[in-house]
Amino acid sequence: MDIVIENVAKEYRPAGFSALKDVSLNIRPGEWVFLVGASGMGKTTLLKLLYKEEIPDRGRVLVGGEDVAKISGSRLRRGMGIVFQSFRLLPRKTAHENIAYGAEVLGVAPSEVRRRTLEILELVGLKDKGSRLPSELSGGEQQRIAVGRSLINQPKLLIADEPTGDLDPANSEIVLKIFENVHRERNTTILFATHAVEIVDRMQKRVVRLEHGRVVRDEIGGYWAMEGTGT
Predict the structure, then answer these.
(1) What CATH fold (topology level) applies to the domain 1-79+155-226?
(2) Domain ranges of the chain
(3) Quick check: 176 pLDDT over 90?
(4) How many other CB atoms sit within 10 Å of the CB of residue 93?
(5) Distance between CA atoms of 176 and 91, rounded to whole angstroms?
(6) Cβ-proximal residues to 69 (8 Å cutoff; 6+ apart), any chain
(7) What is the pTM for the complete model shown?
């Protein structure tokens, strides 16, 4: 799934804060792109435009060749998985039920939902904890379930907003390996916002740096290799 962002601007009123200013990006199908930059520089706003939690004041956003402004948010999100820094699991549903829920809502056959869910529990390394409630899981395990939930409808695009931000290094590494597996095996497009310098440096993927709502760097390489980068 490709992404085209054309001359996009977004301002939050009445504060008059410009989150994005004339941003243009092209992301190819199957590409992995890191979004970096200090807090408040526009990363989360840019991601929200992709799944239509926000709409631009100016410019166009196209996902998979479709203008986001012209389709419903629910239809748009069927083709993507979204992972947040906060886990956002349903507290009264088990790990298995949390993962399965998105497919059930779309009317996927129960036998297929079960097959996919068991496959995902194994992928995230929690096949023995499917009956646990979120409160019975560690933070790292909850985030792995959240990542699994984002995969249930076999998305062509994964959007991750600081998915390792609340995790220790060991759990961050586990979550990152899940993303790597999905990217390698399914050729999924990944847009990954992060402050994790060590992840960006190690992966050596395309890095887009936002500063005061503008793209100031767009190149392959590590976090620190980008002039002027800071946290």
Answers:
(1) Rossmann fold (3.40.50)
(2) 1-79+155-226, 91-154
(3) yes
(4) 14
(5) 24
(6) 55, 56, 60, 61
(7) 0.90
